[in-house]
C-alpha cells in the first residue's frame, strides 16, 4: 500500500502536469469507490469546467483543490493497489486496463486512477461535505510536519503498543507497515513496547527516526512493490534500502543478529531482538 512517501512523490509529480488545467470530463466504472453527496451524474456535471488550483496532502490522502462555487476538493486514497497516472489522450487506450476513474483535462491530458484491486477511494465535495467522512475528519497531523510537543503528548496519552500507535492514522497520518518497521529499527525500539513506557531518549529517537525515514524514502522515490509506480510510470528505489521491512531471516545491518518476524498490531513486523530494546 502506498504510504506517505509514495503519496508525496505522487503529489510532486502530478502538480506540474495538472495544475491550472480545467476538468472537461469525468468517468468512473466503479461507483462504490466514489464517496460524495452527489450522484454519479451530478458529480460529473459539477466537476466540469472547474480548474485544479492547488494540490495538498495529509498522510496518505491527496487533495485537488478546485476553482468555482463552494471551492470543492477531490481527495484520493490509493489504498492497496491504487495509483494515479498522467496520460496523454493518444496513449490512453494502451494503458486503459484497470482504470476506475478518469478525469479528462484541458490540453489533452488524462488523470487516471488505476486500481486493480478496487480498494481505492475518491471523495468529492466542499470542506463541509468532506468533514462528514470520518476517515478524513479524524485524520491526525501529517507525520512529516509533526511537532515534538504533540508527539510526546500523544505517546503519553495513548498507552497502546508502539507499532499500533505508529499505524493509527488519527494519531499521526501517513505511516504504514513499511515506514513503521523502518522507523522502529532506526530508533532501536522494540515494536512490542507500550507507547507510554518509552524513555525520554527513546521518544526523541523515535521522533527523529520518523522524519529521517520519511525523508530518505522520498529522496529515493518511495518504495515500488508490485503495483505502485510514479504518475509518470517511473519506479522508486527505497525497497532496495530497507533495513527491517521484508528482511526477516536476514542479518541486522547494525549488529548481525538474524531479524525476526512476528505479528504485532495485527501486522507482519520485522525487527532485531538484539538492538531494538
Ligand atoms: Zn541488530
From TrEMBL:
PANTHER family in UniProt: FORMAMIDOPYRIMIDINE-DNA GLYCOSYLASE (PTHR22993:SF9)
Keyword Transcription found: no
Keywords assigned: DNA damage, DNA repair, DNA-binding, Glycosidase, Hydrolase, Lyase, Metal-binding, Multifunctional enzyme, Zinc, Zinc-finger
Family listed: Belongs to the FPG family.
Name assigned to this protein: DNA-formamidopyrimidine glycosylase
Taxonomic superkingdom: Bacteria
Location of the Formamidopyrimidine-DNA glycosylase catalytic domain: 2-120
Xref: SMART domains: Fapy_DNA_glyco, H2TH
Listed CDD domains: EcFpg-like_N
Organism of derivation: Candidatus Terrybacteria bacterium RIFCSPHIGHO2_01_FULL_43_35
A GO MF label: damaged DNA binding
Record bears the keyword Metal-binding: yes
InterPro entries, per database record: DNA_glyclase_Znf_dom_DNA_BS (IPR015887), FPG_cat (IPR012319), FPG_Glyclase (IPR020629), FPG_N (IPR035937), H2TH_FPG (IPR015886), Ribosomal_uS13-like_H2TH (IPR010979), Znf_DNA_glyclase/AP_lyase (IPR000214), Znf_FPG/IleRS (IPR010663)
SUPFAM superfamilies to which the protein is assigned, alphabetical: Glucocorticoid receptor-like (DNA-binding domain), N-terminal domain of MutM-like DNA repair proteins, S13-like H2TH domain
GO biological process: one example: base-excision repair
Catalysed reaction, written as an equation: 2'-deoxyribonucleotide-(2'-deoxyribose 5'-phosphate)-2'-deoxyribonucleotide-DNA = a 3'-end 2'-deoxyribonucleotide-(2,3-dehydro-2,3-deoxyribose 5'-phosphate)-DNA + a 5'-end 5'-phospho-2'-deoxyribonucleoside-DNA + H(+); Hydrolysis of DNA containing ring-opened 7-methylguanine residues, releasing 2,6-diamino-4-hydroxy-5-(N-methyl)formamidopyrimidine
Cofactor(s) recorded in Swiss-Prot or TrEMBL: Zn(2+)
Record text on subunit structure and interactions: Monomer.
Pfam families (alphabetical): Fapy_DNA_glyco (PF01149), H2TH (PF06831), zf-FPG_IleRS (PF06827)
Domain FPG-type: 243-277
Amino acid at each position: 500500500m502506498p504510504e506517505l512517501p509514495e503519496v508525496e512523490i505522487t503529489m510532486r509529480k502530478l502538480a506540474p502536469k495538472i495544475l491550472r488545467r480545467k476538468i472537461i470530463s469525468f468517468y468512473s466504472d466503479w461507483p462504490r469507490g466514489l464517496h460524495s453527496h452527489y450522484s454519479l451524474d451530478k458529480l460529473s456535471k459539477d466537476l466540469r469546467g472547474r480548474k485544479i488550483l492547488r494540490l495538498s496532502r495529509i498522510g496518505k490522502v491527496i487533495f485537488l483543490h478546485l476553482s468555482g462555487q463552494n471551492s470543492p476538493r477531490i481527495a484520493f486514497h490509493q489504498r492497496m493497489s491504487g495509483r494515479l497516472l498522467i496520460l496523454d489522450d493518444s496513449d490512453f487506450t494502451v494503458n486503459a486496463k484497470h482504470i476506475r476513474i478518469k478525469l479528462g483535462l484541458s490540453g489533452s491530458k488524462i488523470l487516471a486512477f488505476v486500481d486493480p484491486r478496487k480498494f481505492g477511494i475518491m471523495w468529492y465535495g466542499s470542506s463541509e461535505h468532506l468533514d462528514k467522512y470520518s476517515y478524513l475528519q479524524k485524520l491526525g497531523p501529517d507525520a512529516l510536519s509533526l511537532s515534538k510537543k504533540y508527539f510526546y503528548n500523544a505517546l503519553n496519552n495513548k498507552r497502546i503498543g508502539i507499532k499500533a500507535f505508529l499505524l493509527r492514522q488519527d494519531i499521526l497520518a501517513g505511516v504504514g507497515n513499511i515506514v513503521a518497521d523502518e522507523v522502529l529499527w532506526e530508533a532501536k525500539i522494540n515494536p512490542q513496547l507500550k507507547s507510554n513506557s518509552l524513555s525520554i531518549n527513546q521518544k526523541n529517537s523515535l521522533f527523529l527516526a520518523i522524519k529521517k525515514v520519511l525523508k530518505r524514502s522520498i529522496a529515493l522515490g518511495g518504495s515500488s512493490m508490485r503495483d505502485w509506480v510514479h504518475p509518470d510510470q517511473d519506479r522508486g528505489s527505497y525497497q532496495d534500502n530497507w533495513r527491517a521491512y521484508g528482511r526477516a531471516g536476514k542479518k541486522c545491518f547494525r549488529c548481525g543478529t538474524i531479524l525476526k518476524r512476528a505479528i504485532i498490531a495485527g501486522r507482519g513486523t520485522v525487527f532485531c531482538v538484539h538492538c531494538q530494546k
